[in-house]
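User: As part of a screening pipeline, I want to sanity-check one entry by hand. Below is the sequence and the SMILES for fe (ii) ion. Please return the complex as structure tokens so I can compare it with the automated output.
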Amino acid sequence: MGVSSLGYIALNVSKLDEWLDLMTKVFGLEVRRRHDSDVVDLRMDEHHHRLTLNSSEIDAIATVGWEVGSMAELEALAQTLRDRQIEVVPGSPGLCAERKVKALYQFREPTIEVESEIYYGPLVSNTPFAPSRGISGYTTDGLGLGHVVFWVKDVQATIDFYTQVMGFKISDYIAWDDNDAVFLHCNSRHHTLAILAAAPGRPAGALNHIMLEAKSMDDVGYGYDIARDKGIPIMLEPGKHSNDHMQSFYLQTPSGFWMEYGFGARLIGEDWEIKSYDQPMLWGHRGNRMVAK
Ligand SMILES: [Fe+2]
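Assistant: Here is the complex for your manual check:
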């Protein structure tokens, strides 16, 4: 019960054109521009869209959309939120039409304090995903969009909320330098959510990064070259993570937070053992100097 996957993310972005350049040229996503608005949906698989960019004065995450498996589970999860004195607002027909889902509830997540939605029944298009560059696509089937990582003010409160209310389980922990990260899963993707303790310069509620997982290492490699050639800041060079074994690199988005472009993560199985690691990488992921946004 609870959340079955990370379904969609909407972002408020001040540099829409730069974002579209990044999303199409590097990540190869398909653009679905809405008529009569500055809102752009981006497609990466059979779903109508997974990412939405709202042209805005500010850069911030607008919404995190969590998918649940049935209408009954959606109602049950909404009631669980109400039982915790969290206000849940049913999505209007207009909002559901924008999100391309059958039904949703909006709420303000109380620990990260991010606007969130739980939903049921995403629209799947009968036309194939048409990537903006020659990529093999994204690993999303049964796993969702990818993963999202936040800095939070109270790590234990966030763990409690996502495990006790939203149906997540802990995958593992990594502590290194002045970072303390906790990784959580809601399906067999190693982590759909990870959290880090907030610190000076890393405010609570801020987005650390979003990860998209390619179906081939070549997609990531070509994407790395394209990003470098375009002068997009590479924040972590290619490397392999210690816990999920993802091979990836990290770049800085026009909004300041990072995106990870990865391939080949291992999955959580029935016999998963929770471990603690003292480094986030097996090799690589060497850092580059922070570039001002
Ligand atoms: Fe990541």
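Points to compare against the pipeline: The chain has two domains: 3-122, 147-284. The CA atoms of residues 150 and 207 lie 5 Å apart.
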